[in-house]
Amino acid sequence: MKQAWKTQASALRRTGVVAAAIAALAACATVGGGLALDPIEAPDRRMVTQGEAKKILIPNLTQCAHTNPKMNLRVAAVGQITATDGTVITVPAETALQRKQGPLSHDLYNECNKVLPPNSAAVDASKAPVIEIDSDGEVITGYIVADNYFEFYVNGKLVSVDNTPYTPFNSAIVRFKVKRPYTMAFLLVDWDEQLSLGVENMARLNDNWYLGDGGLIARFSDGTVTDGSWKAQTFMIGPLDSPADVVDKGTLRFFDRLGRTYPDVKKPKCRADCFMVHYTQPRGWRNKTFNDTHWPNAYTYTDEEIGVTTLPAYTRYPELFAGARWIWTQNLVYDNVVIARKVVR
Ligand SMILES: [Ca+2]
Ligand SMILES: [Ca+2]
Q1: pLDDT of 32 strictly over 70
Q2: What ligand has the least distance to the C-alpha of 148?
Q3: Section 67-94 average pLDDT
Q4: Could you tell me if 127 and 258 lie in one domain?
Q5: What's residue 31's pLDDT?
């Protein structure tokens, strides 16, 4: 026992020395463009939950002014569940929308608000408010589609909060004034109905145990597009037969045993007893100088993989998204809460 403790303590010391060395290196690290990055934060804590969240905090975050029977309008609830280590976790995520932090997204396409321009030429971005980050910066216009929820920060400042967290599928216009280098950061949520299980009630497919998938695509007027150069990290993986199915290798989190995208992906054997693996979000993830150099790069996906070939919020405006790729983490289906970041130099 004593020996085991000693070995553990010396391993911890070694880990501590290595971590301190990495932190010291990172503290003085600058990546091209002269942006000095913060020291790498302590590793994210891994937590495990089992089953569906019992406590509903908010019955429905979606406010839809104009409804019709043909709309794909589904309830976006927010719940809480206690992890095996006692941590109380808000699911599917704690969001700026539920905290009523703005500004709410300006619509590119939104059935709830009857903003439905027929094509790119009919889109008027000039009404979107300009969020000022640098008074002497340039005004950048961006177009965003997230499956399902996004909140968007530039240099740590909240620029846009998706006004439709789940469905119907919407898209947004953002404008902000900033100078280079600057950092974009998105919190992204693949929303669901069976909270903390990552499971949707997909009436259209007559499937009340459907595994939803995520995705983000965005294009900005300074030439920045979502692509494989972005960083993307997952913070919620499941539903799982066993939490051991998610393998951590440093800051890489792997789960691909049941596939990564439709149509190949398979369901786990579990149902109401499924597990979910969660991670704490690093404190500085929104910030300009947050050090994400150890995060995995984003994976890119096709329209077909994301399943958006018939969604007008996106397909009506090919010119506005030209050159951008859909991005997410490694697993489009099982990774449910994602942070994506890009430093623009
Ligand atoms: Ca949305
Ligand atoms: Ca999912």
Answers
A1: no
A2: 1
A3: 96
A4: yes
A5: 56
Ligand nearest to the CA of 337: 2
Task: Indicate whether 60 pLDDT > 90.
Answer: yes
* 13 within 8 A of 19, measured Cβ to Cβ: no
Query: Are residues 224 and 318 located together in one domain of the fold?
Result: yes
Domain boundaries, position 154: 34-344
Residue 162 alpha carbon to ligand 1 centre in Å: 6
Same domain for 299 and 335, yes or no, is: yes
Q: How far apart are CA 46 and CA 235, in angstroms?
A: 9
Tell whether 27 and 62 lie within a shared domain. Answer: no
**How far apart are the CA of 188 and the centre of ligand 1, in A?**
10
Ligand nearest to the CA of 240: 2
List residues bridging with 50 in a β-sheet.
Answer: 275
Number of domains in the chain: 2
Structure tokens at 17: 């020395």
Percent helix / strand / coil, the chain, rounded to 5:
15, 35, 50
Q: Check whether residue 82 and residue 2 sit in a common domain.
A: no
Ligand 2 centroid distance, CA of 199 (Å): 7
Q: What percentage of the chain exceeds 90 in pLDDT?
A: 88
pTM beyond 0.70: yes
Give yes or no: residues 14 and 95 share one domain.
no
CA of 62 to the centre of ligand 1 (A): 10
| CA distances, 288 to each of 178, 181, 292, 325 (Å) | 12, 9, 10, 23
Looking at the structure, do residues 150 and 50 belong to the same domain, yes or no? yes
Backbone angles phi, psi at 6, to 5 degrees: -60, -45
Give the chain's largest Cα–Cα span: 73
- Note the pLDDT of residue 30: 60
* Structure confidence at residue 29 (pLDDT): 55
35 within 8 A of 288, measured Cβ to Cβ: yes
| Whether residue 327 is found in the same domain as residue 264 | yes
Residue 309 pLDDT > 90: yes
Q: By the 8 A CB rule, do 298 and 226 touch?
A: yes
Per-chain mean pLDDT for the chain: 92
Determine if residue 238 is left, alpha or beta; phi over 0 gives left, psi from -120 to 50 gives alpha, anything else beta. Answer: left
Pairing between β-strand 207-211 and β-strand 171-178 as defined by DSSP bridges:
unpaired
